[in-house]
Amino acid sequence: MLKHKFTAALFVLLLLVFIVLNVEWWLYLLIFLVFIGLTSWGSFDIRLNYFIKAYSSNPNEKSRRIALTFDDGPHEMTEKVLDLLLKYNAKATFFCIGNQIEKHPEILQRVIKEGHTVGNHTLSHSKSFGFFSTSQVKEEIEQTDTLLQNKTIKKPLFFRPPFGVTNPNVAKAIAQTGHSVIGWNIRSLDTVIDDETKIFQRIKKKVKPGGIVLLHDTSLKTVNVLEQLLLFLQSEKYEMITVDKLLNISAYEN
């Protein structure tokens, strides 16, 4: 939360200076709007590390290695994703929703069996996640950890917040649970864009060593894009690895 605290302190300092100088009212409004804008931007862009440290890439990676990540499963489409990963000898990281784990435990088992990494993506993936209290965030994370641990894996140490939203409550909860927050630097927008070619081109132009790609294993559209992407990465001699290998950090508690 260092960036947020610095911004807040700067905001307070400027207010005090404005009071001393007796400046025009619109300057107060301007600095307030700037502060709100920066805080909102920091909440929704996980790469900024505004409220919490997030690993969004490995900028020191020199080899052609990249991490593919999938959010919101396990899902029926996860099976097709796994088929493609197996076909192209690629490994990936899956950020799983607790409620989805309960619906498709057998798919989660296959993810683990085939050597992919699993992370926590909350229990409900609620659209109101950004308004959750610290205790609510912590509870959702811990319940999902328990579900994952019950499926024969150790406690996962990776957490990705729904929609990439961070705020002081999320930061406090993560400080208590001890997870590493995983972001991305290549966002496919595969849940927003309908045109498969546009999604693929969006990813392709941003590919570089050390990148983390955000995809969702929940639609046939993404499956079709994935095959194009895997063919491209293979032709460019990229190795598709899990996030823990890319970042050289632990994915599970020892």
What does this 3D model show about the protein?
The protein is an alpha/beta fold. It has two domains: 2-44; 55-247, TIM Barrel. The protein is 48% helix and 14% strand. Strands 2, 3, 4, 7, 8 and 9 form a six-stranded parallel β-sheet that branches. Strands 1-6-5 form a three-stranded parallel β-sheet, with no helix packed on it. Helix 8 links the parallel strand 7 (186-187) and strand 8. Helix 1 (2-21) runs antiparallel to helix 2, helix 3 runs parallel beside helix 9 and helix 8 (196-204) runs parallel beside helix 9. It holds the Pfam family Polysacc_deac_1. Residues 64-241 form the NodB homology domain.
Number of domains: 2
Please describe the biggest sheet, giving its number of strands, its sense, and whether it closes into a barrel.
6 strands, parallel
Topology order in helix (H) and strand (E) letters:
HHEEHEHHEHEHEEHEHEH
Q: What integer is the average pLDDT?
A: 94
Distance linking N and C termini: 27 Å
Question: What is the CATH class designation of the largest domain?
Answer: Alpha Beta
Shape: globular
Low-confidence segments, given as residue ranges, are none
Gyration radius, rounded: 20 Å
What is the number of E strands? 9
CATH architecture of the largest domain: Alpha-Beta Barrel
Provide the structure class. alpha/beta
CATH superfamily grouping of the largest domain: Glycoside hydrolase/deacetylase
